Amino acid sequence: MADKNESCLLVRNVSFAYEKKYPVLHEISFEAAPGETVGIAGANGAGKSTLLKLLVGLETGFEGSIEICGIRLDKKNLAAVRRHIGYVFQDSDSQLFMTTVEEDVAFAPLNYGYSADETKKRVENALRSVNAEHLAKKPVYRLSGGEKRLVSIATILSLTPEVVLMDEPSSGLDPKNRRNLIGIIRDLPGTKLIASHDMDLLWDTCSRILLIRDGRIVCDGPADDIMRNEELLRENDLELPLSLQGRR
Amino acid sequence: MHMADALVSPAVAGTMAVLSGAAAVYSVKKLREEDDPKRIPVMGVMGAFVFAAQMINFTIPGTGSSGHICGGFLISALAGPYAGFLTMIGVLLIQCLFFADGGLLALGCNVWNMAFYGCFIGALLVWKPFMRKGATKARIMAASIIGCIVTLQLGAFSVTVETLLSGITELPFGVFLAAMQPIHLAIGLVEGIITGAVLVFVQDARPELLWGVEDEGREGRFTLKKTLVILAAAAAVIGGAVSLIASALPDGLEWAIGRVAGVEELEAAGSVYESASSIQEKLSFLPDYAFKGSESAAGTTVSGIVGAALVLALCVCLCYILRLFMNRRTNEQN
Amino acid sequence: MSRIEKAVFELNSIEDLSRQNRWVNRLHPSVKLLLTLLLAVLAVSFDKYNLPGLLGLFVYPLFVFIAGGLRFKDALRRLWIVLPLVVVTGITNPFFDRQVQFYIGNFAVTGGMVSMATLIVKGILCVLGAYILIATTPIEGICRSLRAFRVPKTIVTVILLIYRYVTVLLQEADRVTNAYLLRAPSEKGIGIRAWGPLAGGLLLRSMDRAQVLYESMQLRGFDGEFPEGLHALFYEGRDNRRLSIIYFAVWAVILVLLRIVPVAGIVGSVFGI
Fold it and tell me: How many CB atoms are closer than 10 A to CB B257?
């Protein structure tokens, strides 16, 4: 676990409810070190997506505190926080709203005031880091599902964030695109938080796992320990990664 | 109801483009005042929704044909008239460019005939007053039906006037109008019910999405009563003007032009004059309802029957073709 | 193919054409937009009996069809949409305007026939004019040029967003209607009980999508307006400016001349017809 000073993501006693009667998250606390890849595992409705939304300030009004790269998250400094943290949505079609790939990737850098030249450079770099340079001029709606997912990630990378959050990155991808995505996630720099119930994806990309059930962290530890603990997984409505099932 | 480029003269197209443009500029200003950053994504996605939803065929019970939603009214009931109007401009532009529904030149006309009436008249004068005391299923349905009928009637009337002013058709104004208005009464009714059904569903599931629904007690600018009075007055004025023009058109217009120009007979010059003189020409097809050279009563009768049959056949054909056309095509028309 | 699928297909095929790498595609979009408008204005301004003069205007669409590698077959589909409307409006002309203009053999051609034909030809010209614009110019180009003509940014942004999501929602609409029709094999459309839920469900999902879209924009620094330079960013230097100006000047002159000078008549008289 990372030293407190080093961590670029610090979550302390965070509780949240959309409606007071129905709390979604209870007393969530964890931190992540620079470069660490953390998987957030949990069944449907466990609170994974809500947690990610809190971290980027899409949902406010939570209790506790969240710090990203030393900046405490509150309503006033949302823009500053979002400069450091990127969020890849589950539905790529809702994330990519421009008509061509390059314009979509350029949206964030231009909004954050980068010059035209710098923006172009960033677009190029971002697309290269997901092996999608050849898609730059393509109209977004002619991309395949796998291509859309890669471009979604590129739109986030164009700001070179220190922290990247991904919500179900492998959903809807065929095996080949999924494998490709896993390779790309592994190569991405920075701290990564991946929320998924695709245990194989987490097994292949994460060194550490937070297991969430009913809005509480039930377990926080090395992926190696948690992923092999069939009983623990079953208790939380999850299953062993397929790649481990044969070797039991 | 989309007008094609070929059906408008440059003068009519230009005038309507200026009118629609002014409404657009006003809407942009109003929207900026509201300053809701979420407007842009909502407008974009809702525009695409209207586009797609207008392609869905809704079967009208008891008939073989189908109806569609009324896009301008629906979107304004959700996003308000200003956002609705600007969105419909986008929808109409994409329809004309990519699907040849309407045309670039006639865009001003189409925006006015469909978006302006649907969004401003439909949402501000009908929807809002109905929602002043909160939304109920009955009120939503009533507002939707009245709103769609009113906007389609106004739209059809504008199409007729614009076509006539453009000097395109030889059809007498009255006949054209008599073909357009009743068809659009029926279409308006059907579209109103379908659109109402969608809005009722929205009210059931997510009432906060409906625009302009006020809590009881707050005084709106227009009351329901006032609105009905205004609408009735407008209908009376329009109806009166229409019947006046329709009945007196050849003579009346000719007389007016003759007075303005100071001559009895005019050479065809501008489009207005041309249409007036062509109307006169066409009436001489069966002069005095008698065959040329025949003074007999038989001649009058024959010509009367032929004339009536012709007009009837024409109306029927026109209705049929128009309906077929309205049904078959996407009917994006609001 | 359902009508919705056809629409998606049509969109895709135009999209592909517009992004071809031919010189016509690289002309400045404003030039093509203005020429298309000019063509339409000139076409509709022709007298209702001046069919020969009108036919002269076809040179411009013909030229772009050939230079842009477009196929008439693709454009024909769009004519089917416009022609009924034009024909309905013009069909009464032969009945009302029966003055004989000339004879073809023994067949008397009346003014009404000529004016109806003229109207139809005008319709065809305008449709082709719009087609050659959209089939050689991507939507971003058209929007960039709308911005240049001072169309408010809100409208331009919304046009682009609608265009972006039209296909997504068309496909969704196709799925829900197909899902309905597969379970109601004897029906041709959506039955009355499903009117509200089917379209309303689509609407609510669209609203949810708009919400996610807004969140995604917010996270990337959006605060109500798109950054101004975005649409121009990747196009600078891609248009052939000098060629565009020459192209516009040449075609504007040709088209206006064709409107003023009765070329068809002159050519006819040269050959002694």
Answer: 18
Over residues B259-267, mean pLDDT: 35
Of C191, A204, C229, C14, whose CA–CA distance to B96 is shortest?
Answer: C14
Residue B311 parent element (H or E): helix B297-328
Give the per-residue pLDDT at A135: 96
- Domain limits for position A217: 1-73+195-248
Average pLDDT, chain A: 91
For chain C, residues with pLDDT lower than 70 are 236-238, 272-273
With a cut of 70, say whether residue A226 has pLDDT above it.
yes
Per-position DSSP letters for B25-37, written without gaps between them: HHHHHHHHHH--T
pLDDT digits 0-9 by tens, C24-52: 998 999 999 999 999 999 999 998 888 88
Are B155 and B331 a contacting pair, CB within 8 Å?
A: no
Task: Specify the pLDDT at position C52.
Answer: 84
Neighbour-count burial of C272, counting CB atoms closer than 10 A to its CB (0-12 exposed, 13-18 middle, 19+ buried):
exposed
**Token duo for residue B42:** 């909502």
What mean pLDDT comes out for the span A36-53?
93
- What ipTM, to 2 d.p.? 0.92
Name A205's Cβ contacts closer than 8 Å, sequence gap at least 6.
A37, A39, A182, A185, A186, A192, A194
CATH for the stretch B5-247+319-328: 1.10.1760.20
Question: Which residues in chain C have their CB less than 8 angstroms from residue B37's CB?
Answer: 214, 218, 222-224
pTM here?
Answer: 0.83
Contact A19, A173 (CB under 8 A): no
Q: What is the pLDDT of residues A95-123, one digit of tens each?
A: 999 999 999 999 999 999 999 999 999 99
The answer to whether position A146 is within a domain reads no
Amino acid symbol at A54 = L
Give the pLDDT score at A242.
Answer: 86
The closest CB to that of A102, out of C12, C160, C234, belongs to C234
- Residue labelled with tokens 């005019």: B266
C198: contact with B, CB 8 A cutoff: yes
Residue of C nearest to A110 (CA): C227
Report the residue of A94, A105, A144, A168 to disrupt the C interface, i.e. the one with the largest count of C CBs within 10 Å. A94
Cross-chain residue pair B49–C78, CB shorter than 8 Å = no
Whether the CB of C34 is below 8 Å from some CB of chain B: the reply is: no
Residue pair A88/A194 in contact (Cβ under 8 Å)? The answer is: no
Q: C87, exposed or middle or buried, with CB in 10 Å at 0-12, 13-18, 19+?
A: middle
Closest residue by Cα to residue B334 from B4, B20, B51 = B51
Q: How many of the other CB atoms lie within 10 Å of CB of A29?
A: 13
Range B243-264 average pLDDT: 37
Find out whether A119 and A106 touch, Cβ atoms under 8 Å: yes
Every domain of chain B and the residues it spans: 5-247+319-328
Nearest CA to A238 among A17, A44, A1? A44
A65: domain CATH number is 3.40.50.300
C218 vs A: CB within 8 A: yes
Q: What is the pLDDT of residue B293?
A: 36
